[in-house]
Amino acid sequence: VRLSAQRFLREGQMRKERKRLIIPFLLPAAILYTVFFIYPTVDALRMATFDWSGFTPTGDFIGLANFQELLHDEVYWSTLKFTVMILLAGGVMIFGMAFLFTAILSSGMWGPFSKKVFRAILFFPNVVATVALATLWAFIYNRNFGLLNSFFEMIGIEKLSKVTWTGPGLITWAVLIAMVWIYVGFYLVLLLAGVDKISPELFDAAKVEGANQLQVFVNITIPLLWDVLTVAVVFWGITAIKQFEFMYAFAGIRPPREIWTTAVYMYVLSFGKRDAVFRMGYGTAVAVTLLILVAIFVVVARRLMRREVVQF
Amino acid sequence: MKVARYIVMILVVSSLLLSACGGAPATPAPEPTAKPAAEEPAAEEPVVEEPAAEAGPALSGKLVYWALWNEGEQEQVVFSQIVEDFEKAYPDVDVEVTWAGREVLTKARSALMAGTQLDLVDQAADELNAALMKNDLALPLDDMLTEKAYGEDVAFQDVLLPGVLDPYKANGKVVFVPYALYTSAFWYDENYFADNGLTVPATWDELMAMCETLKGQGKACIAQDGTVDFYNAYYFYWLAERVMGPGAFYAAVSDTTGQAWADPGWLKVAQMVQEPVEKGYFMDGWDGNVWPAGQVAWAQGEAAIILCGSWVPNETSKMALEGFKYRGFPFPEVADGKGEITEVESYLIGWVIPKDAQNPAAAREFIKFAMQKMYRDKHVELAKTFSTRVGAMAPPELPDMGGWFETNTQLFKPYDGVQADFPSWWTTIFLPEQDKLIKLQITPEEFIAKMQAETAEYWSKPTPTPEAVR
Fold first, then answer.
1. Residue of A nearest to B14 (CA)
2. Rounded to whole angstroms, how far apart are CA atoms A185 and A122?
3. What gap in Å lies between CA B315 and CA B296, rounded to an integer?
4. Residues of B in contact with A54 (CB under 8 A)
5. Closest chain A residue to the Cα of B432, Cα to Cα
6. Residue B181: what are its φ and ψ, rounded to 5°?
7. Would the ipTM clear 0.85, i.e. be above it?
8. Is A283 within 8 Å of chain B by CB?
9. pLDDT by residue (tens digit) across A39-56?
10. pTM reported for the whole predicted model
11. How many helices (H) and strands (E) does chain A have?
12. Which helix (H) or strand (E) holds A283?
């Protein structure tokens, strides 16, 4: 009994010491996170209630007037529409393709080397700066000497070789396709990493039972990938809602209106540039709505994707 | 626990998202009046003359200058030499120059807020106006105007072209000293016109007739980078100048009731914007041209003319057809219009000394030093633009522009001053609608109705205060 009591006391002491150690280890990170992330976030909420150019120490407090103005701001709603289009249509295309490639690559038809090469090729756009990719795609879509029209001309489809891919109506889809090309590799790598963790015995057992590739993918791969998929969807939501660089760099001196995302609009309002709007308070209100959008998306996505945990 | 998890997740996500608002933008800026960066002449020796050897006032300390030019641009080459020469002339002054690029004011904002030393900044007048002048952050420079110009026996104001100090005064005081002058007009290749038997149109009808002739020959008349909304807006703005006269566009936006747009003249302007588009005078696919595709196509002889700023010859010089002879003509007059062909847009780039500058004396002296004729000539030579300095050379690439300014009967600000004084109206109301107008997505009547309603709405907001009275 005495020995047990001593051991209990010793363990208690160790727990206390461990707790004491946690604080100094966590403190630097906590301070940095508070100063550089939490504080700006809270301050942004405050800034959104001011009419402020950003060039003076203080602005005029206007309460929720910036948000009221947003309700009637047609440009804001059109940018939000495009942002949601990226989120939903882009998401469907990206995850559709990522699933397709995951199914193909995890089917066992490919050797480990081929799988790695294919994965690396698809992931490649992620190692190139977005600005460079945007410029590249602007050249691909160029009506006169772009790669796409030249290709159609080469294979003799005259009608398609004359299409203005960046013209009204088409440019949004043109940009979406470019974004799918950029991001599909990243999500494919995430999903494949999840597949690699699934025990091969499960696949073998399914095959022994006579399941075909599709049945294996639907009944084994997807359920066991569900947690990874949930994280990937949330991550895509955040990525899609804050889309900025590609649109901003796509058209040199000015992103075409049709591809203004809400983040681009926030930048134009806050930092002006050619238009010199310099409405930092209003721009911050736009940013706050993006935060709300992300929050809603995260909650809805996690609720919709909630499943019983499958263990293996 | 789940709720707590959500809260933590949302907090992390929101922090990442919102903290981006406070930081400097990470994306390289588009170049508004950009010259092709990093052209070879960076290696060229800029100014060879010795600076005027005149003992100026006793100056000392650090002079912090943030310039809108990027390293490698022709203007940067000129200003580097000026800085070097200034430091030789004033050995006790250490000029700390930052080539900040077109985002200079975004960066300056953080510096001014943080109390970081910033003594001199340059940018286009409209942007300086919105950022510094309107916020009462620019130092008045009136007394400097009567001081002697550097190395000359004349007042500083006399080395500047008449009228260039007037448009951007703040509270009646001079706070902005321009050094470069641009304008917008139609540009063409003299050889193309000669080969096709074209003559410069003086009226809108002649312009349309010229385009009809070219269309008949299967050639494109007008090049346009149609995805750039403020380039598309040139058509509405210039037609407004010619149909309604200078100042009318500004007055229409200033009308708090929006009723000014009911004037039939505005409907005529809107209809005329659509005329060349409806008649097929714009090059194929113009509305999808991502800059600089349109201007490159023009420089390659795929269209006869382009309506753009006077920076376009410089921007296209490397890709133009061999022997391309840059010429320009002012936006033509319109029959029964109130505007005249001799009314010219002046787009100015220059300096402002921030109100809280720590070395304003050195900054003032630097401005005077940099306005010496030899530096202005070199600027003109390398950057192919006009100078605001009296007697400075004219760029041979712009043989017509000097004449427009010499014979002008009135100068006006770009976009009639609307972009400068009503940037929110310009960006959120006008630009998107005029884009739809020129792309035939709305009718002229719908456009005018929208302008009427939206302008009244713009002025009816109790807060935030519209820009013009901020």
1. A291
2. 4
3. 9
4. 109, 113
5. A257
6. -130, 130
7. no
8. yes
9. 999 999 999 999 988 888
10. 0.84
11. 16, 2
12. helix A280-304
